[in-house]
Write a structure and sequence with these properties.
The protein is mainly beta. It is built from three helices and 16 strands. The chain has a 16-stranded antiparallel sheet, with no helix packed on it. It starts with a helix and ends in a 5-residue tail after the last strand.
């Protein structure tokens, strides 16, 4: 336990000088209000809660309105326990979509257990594109569906920063149908073509199964990492008939991230993200194929809409430059560059034959200095004129 204590303590101290003023301090100063009371010694680690409006525009939703909240807390001493975070969001879009989600990363006392959840309840629509990175998008058909997803994973701590465990996976899309006015192109849509070729249903899409996972996490924060590394490997197996699953298939997901200070005062940093999703056996439903924007927080492939590039294998990389603009830490900025490559067996397209580049920049407003929760506003661009504006209460990675 002493090794874990030393590691966490060092992480806390390394980040402390960068956060002196947040939005709450600014509001109190404007209103000429006194500072908040000192920390209660009987409750030194209370829940830290922030809520922010979501006003944005993405290629798959149009204008987007709603709210997102972040709840952060320590379930043990910060010297031996990582911060836990829950992100809750509810939005409505210009296209009539209703999107709600509850995503959590919970560390129990002394990091004994880690619970990770990705739960989505959506009445939504999405353009369906042909498979592979070289797909041009001119065959896209907008399809409506009701999406309900519950992915829950429990990890046991094996060593400081090292966890292993497993989970239960259920994802279903019901009432699948073309958008009004697109009925004539329904039978030529990529979803119809793929599903028909592989004997899958056309009015629904369901997968159910289990996962086995291992992860090593030495980041100083789950919310806004400034130092440390993260690496995970997840094996997912789905069964026909389990939770109503349409087919049996298997997938391996790998994820690696690292963070580096590039200035002595710690106000300039680089963050690196590499990810791979590989179907290794069976035929997944169309919507469960690896695709851009399908990670837990939907932040991969900024500059492209969710599901723009889809196929049996996906490799993704991103680098982000992060800078604190004000000495008190209130305002910051980022600039990012990403690349995606996707394969397709049906089109005989292999990884790296074609690559989709995206990039952009954004601003950061510190909502809560104790939890290091930012309001993140990003503008991203992709090829063929793709553009999107993204608003969130947690860093992309």
């Amino acid at each position: 336990m002493m090794a874990g204590r030393q590691a966490l303590a060092g992480q806390e101290l390394s980040a402390a000088p960068l956060a002196e003023t947040d939005v709450g301090d600014l509001v109190r100063a404007i209103r000429n209000k006194p500072p908040p009371p000192p920390v209660d010694p009987n409750n030194p680690h209370p829940r830290m809660f922030v809520v922010a409006p979501v006003i944005g525009a993405k290629p798959d939703t149009g204008l987007l309105f709603g709210a997102a909240g972040n709840i952060a807390t320590y379930r043990g001493s910060p010297t031996t326990t990582h911060i836990s975070t829950s992100v809750l969001s509810a939005t409505v879009s210009q296209h009539g979509q209703v999107l709600t989600a509850v995503r959590l990363t919970t560390f129990t006392k002394d990091d004994g257990w880690l619970i990770v959840g990705d739960n989505r309840f959506q009445w939504t629509s999405q353009d369906t594109f042909g498979l592979g990175t070289s797909s041009q998008g001119d065959d896209a058909v907008n399809i409506h569906y009701d999406h309900f997803r519950v992915f829950e994973t429990a990890y046991k701590r094996l060593a400081p920063g090292l966890f292993a465990g497993g989970g239960i996976l259920s994802s279903t899309r019901q009432n699948i149908r073309p958008d009004d006015g697109q009925e004539a192109t329904w039978e030529s849509s990529p979803f119809w073509t793929y599903s028909t070729a592989h004997g899958l249903p056309l009015d629904s899409s369901t997968s159910g199964g289990f996962s086995l996972a291992a992860r090593n996490d030495t980041r100083d924060s789950q919310i806004d990492a400034r130092t440390g590394r993260y690496a995970s490997v997840t094996y997912e197996t789905f069964f026909k008939g389990f939770f109503g699953g349409d087919s049996s298939w298997q997938e391996i997901d790998v994820d690696a991230r690292t963070y580096r200070n590039v200035s002595k005062d710690g106000r300039q940093r680089l963050a690196f993200w590499a990810m791979g999703d590989f179907v290794v056996a069976g035929i997944p439903p169309y919507y469960d194929l690896p695709a851009t924007g399908m990670d837990t927080f939907g932040r991969s492939g900024r500059g492209y809409q969710e599901g723009r590039f889809r196929g049996e294998q996906l490799v993704y990389g991103e680098v982000e430059y992060r800078r604190t603009l004000m000495e008190n830490g209130l305002l910051g900025m980022v600039a990012f560059l990403n690349a995606t490559t996707v394969s397709s067996r049906d089109r005989d397209e292999h990884l790296f034959e074609s690559v989709a580049i995206g990039g952009g920049a954004g601003l950061r407003l510190l909502l809560n200095k104790r939890s290091r929760t930012n309001l993140c506003a990003d503008l991203g661009f992709g090829k063929n004129g793709s553009v999107g504006f993204y608003l969130a209460v947690q860093e992309a990675f």
